[in-house]
Amino acid sequence: MELHYKEFGSGPALIILHGLFGMSDNFASIAGELSRNYRVFTVDQRNHGRSGHSEVFNYEAMSDDLLNFMDQRGLERAHLLGHSMGGKTVMQFAFDYPEKVDRLIVADISPARRSGNDQHKNLIDIMLGVKLENYDSRVKVAYALEDQVSSFRVRQFLLKNLYWKDRSSLGWRLNLEVIRDNLHEVFREIYPSGNFGKPALFLRGELSDYIQEQDLEPIKKLFPKAEFETIAGGTHWLHADNPDDFVAAVRKFLFFVDFASEV
Fold it and tell me: Which residues are the active-site residues?
């Protein structure tokens, strides 16, 4: 699977994976900040953004996509940062290929099963229900979504996936039908093959319930060197709500392994 990506900066490799309905552009500003010290790759996962589409959509496949991405670029190891669905992908990768991971950062997701299929299926059905052939501007599509998606923030997030296929026709970059049919895979638990013994940082949004108190002990069993930090004012989109604290937490976690010896 060919994955679309953007690359920033130089230094130790850091790969960032977005969440469900997202794309690499969601982390452009974060990558720009971190690129002062790192060679940062922001990657579109399969069936998202400009990456390839496939009928197979699960964490094992996305883990293997990441392995191929690293191999194609000659990356022996990298730091990994994943948000939400991307967080589960990097956790699966850490179990599958621990030798390829330096440090692991998981943003606002636990390895446990979550509910949410119905809400996300509803959003997909709304997008599929928009007859894009009837619209000649992105603004008109935005207006069409207003009655069904009340949250301005969610609408804007979804509309980032809207693009011009040619000069006269709009399309969704997401492989909507396949994602809808495999939402059970997105929300299921991660299947570990042991535990991941290297340092791992779990970032939680202060206003989010995606990592709950009952998740902490199971996380510590799977990730014995796990650290936890809460991003003030953060919802599930903690990197967008408080980018300064998000970047600071990532830098602090990575700094000592990469640069402490230089001080």
Answer: 84, 177, 236
Based on the fold, state whether residues 106 and 18 are members of the same structural domain.
yes
- Is the entire prediction scored with pTM above 0.90? yes
Determine the structural domain holding residue 91 and report its residue range: 5-113+189-262
Q: Say if CB 34 and CB 40 are below 8 A apart.
A: yes
Question: Residue 263: which pLDDT band, with cuts at 50, 70 and 90?
Answer: very low
Q: Which residue has the tokens 């408080």?
A: 242
CA distance 11 to 232: 29
Q: What is the mean pLDDT of the chain?
A: 94
139 & 109 share domain: no
Amino acid type, 249: A
- Residues with Cβ within 8 Å of residue 136, at least 6 apart in sequence: 168
- Domain count within the chain: 2
CA distance 212 to 41: 29
